[in-house]
Design brief:
335 residues, mainly alpha
Length: 335
């Protein structure tokens, strides 16, 4: 989804609500006292664009490992993502405290808890279903449906946290749902297989919505690196038994191996960090709009590399969905 694909924009927005610790200074503020407002915003937009560019590579990288099962791809991706976060954290926050269980920017004791295990399970289901969906349906369908995640975040927050939904957001939800119906119901090339993939993409959005709601408090209690490392590592732990069991039926080569490593390093590890750094410098609405370009970037990249051209129905349906999501995430100016 990313983020969301990655996993989606809502998660990244929620994660950015937690203030960054001083140890993350090299990412979250400029040298010698901070950037000017203009300089900080420019850097934030640059971070966001780079991050979304990395997110857009996810569908193509999955396509480069066609003979590796989705459970294994997800396992290696989460494990590599956790390792990337740990390395980056070590660079920007090299000091740790062995007595407290704190490593470089990460308190390992803090993530060795049942709640982090639950977050990791949801992350494993989220990324696993997304990667699996790409084996059944097109990139356009998978990304567009996955990007309905903000709809589920808003609805779950309304039902379980009793948060109000703005009338504008209800309109956006209705438009997004209509777009999803159009995308699947009027697709001339729709098959049972692609419908299964669309269902997996929808499950991706739903699991993200659940994960976003129950993990909201934890994101405000842990540093960016600590939270990301914890959920990715736990996700990999959950998938380890199934990944070992399925390895006998998979075929690895140099290309697929490099693609899987890149999935963890680029869109998940690096992209995640840059996007959350951007969210601390620019308005969440602007970051969400930039994030939606992942759908366009992902479709263009897979079309260029694999000749996977979207149908006119896919383009129209995805456009309606993104318009609805734009209405949902848009925050009116208070001025």
């Amino acid at each position: 989804m990313t983020g969301v694909s990655e996993p989606s924009a809502a998660q990244r927005t929620n994660e950015a609500q937690a203030s960054g610790p001083p140890s993350e200074a090299s990412i979250h503020r400029g040298p010698r006292g901070g950037w000017t407002d203009v300089g900080s915003r420019r850097l934030g937009y640059l971070f966001a664009v780079i991050a979304v560019s990395l997110f857009s590579t996810s569908p193509a990288l999955v396509r480069y490992a066609p003979l590796v099962g989705p459970i294994e791809v997800t396992f290696w991706r989460l494990l590599t993502g956790a390792a990337t976060i740990l390395i980056v954290s070590s660079i920007v926050s090299p000091r740790g405290d062995a007595r407290s269980g704190a490593g470089p920017g990460i308190n390992f004791r803090a993530i060795a808890t049942p709640k982090f295990a639950i977050y990791g399970l949801l992350v494993a289901l989220h990324f696993g279903s997304y990667i699996a969906s790409l084996g059944f349906t097109s990139t356009a369908h998978s990304l567009a449906i996955t990007y309905t995640a903000p709809v589920f975040v808003a609805m779950f927050a309304h039902v379980f946290l009793h948060e109000s939904i703005r009338p504008q957001a209800w309109i956006g939800i209705a438009i997004a749902v209509a777009g999803a119906v159009f995308l699947t119901g009027f697709e001339p090339t729709l098959t049972t297989r692609s419908l299964i993939g669309d269902g997996m993409a929808l499950f991706t959005a739903v699991t993200f919505g659940i994960y976003s709601i129950i993990g909201r408090q934890a994101r405000n209690q842990h540093t960016l690196f600590e939270y990301a490392f914890g959920v990715y590592l736990w996700g990999a732990i959950w998938l380890l038994p199934a990944a070992i069991w399925s390895m006998g039926g998979s075929t690895y080569d140099v290309v697929s191996g490099l693609a899987i490593i890149a999935l963890g390093v680029a869109p998940l590890g690096t992209g995640h960090t840059l996007y959350n750094a951007a969210l601390r410098r620019i308005p969440a609405t602007a970051a969400n709009i930039i994030a939606m370009l992942e759908v366009i970037g992902g479709v263009i990249l897979t079309a260029w590399l694999f000749g996977e051209m979207p149908t006119s129905t896919s383009i129209a349906g995805a456009g309606v969905i993104l318009a609805g999501i734009l209405i949902v995430v848009w925050e009116p100016s208070s001025t």
